[in-house]
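Protein chain data
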Amino acid sequence: MSHTSPKALRVIQALFTLALTLLGLLLVTFALSALSPVDRVLQIVGDHASQSTYDQVRHQLGLDQPLPVQFWRYLVNLAHGDLGIASATGQPVLHDLLAVFPATLELATLALIVGAALGVAAGVLCARYAGTPWDLAVRTFTLLGNSVPIFWLGLLMLALFYARLQWSAGPGRLDDLYQYTVTPHTGFALIDTWLSGDMAAFKNAASHLVLPVLLLAYYALASITRLTRSACLSEMNKEYILLARAKGASEMTILLRHVLPNIRGTLLTVIALAWTSMLEGAVLTETVFSWPGIGRYLTTALFAGDTTAIMGGTLLIGVCFVVINNLTDMLVRLTDPRVR
């Protein structure tokens, strides 16, 4: 019992912290909606509706109640999966989010896999050959990744690889030929086209993913490379590394067998932050490539002044951010005895 009680206490504490964070997120999201200058009632009834119609709709929405009552009603509706009706689409916000979020998740996850794999490898090589022309070239390349506007680079990639060279497919997730022939079982284009058995549709979906995935992966790679290099160089100045060198271990062996395991907590945190930033920051990429994800959905809702859709999308992204960060902290504790 004495061995399990502290663990159970830590689990309860972590769950309580997660619940408190999510409640704070809900409160902030609700406050932003309540303070929005956009009149939700006017969006529904229009500018020429009578005062009685305006008051009736306002009462139906519960906007004539005190803010604490509105917040409680919001929590109750949320517990039943009710995020409201999007004025731009006329559909429940939850239905819209379930339709568009898989596209963003697919794009961000594939970009993370590519960016993390290349970023960690490049960071380790930069640490191994620190101060060499290779190190300078990679650092310059990653610096450009944090400096060049993502929408400009996306347009450039489309103009070069799609319009000029015709090496890849254009905007969207599928060509019109396959758009209505593939049944969206999961919402993930690669999985749905694979399940359909149409290999031409699968190749088409993959070709549409190449440019946006590479673009987002480049920006993830830029930050992951720099932080991996910095963490490796910091670790290589410690005494146990000097002991390994004295025993005759090569620099690459030291990096792979000693340094990388000791910075895995840092790497997990950096990769998780890159993933969450792509989930919430792919707006410009999705707009440039006409990618029907949550970023494009929020952009459309923002221009339409649809506060209900904006509130639901912001809440979904916030929940993803909180959950991924908490899962990463738990994973770091499980894999790193020093943290435990």
User: Anything to note?
Assistant: The chain has a mean pLDDT of 83. Residues 148 and 335 are 36 Å apart (CA to CA).
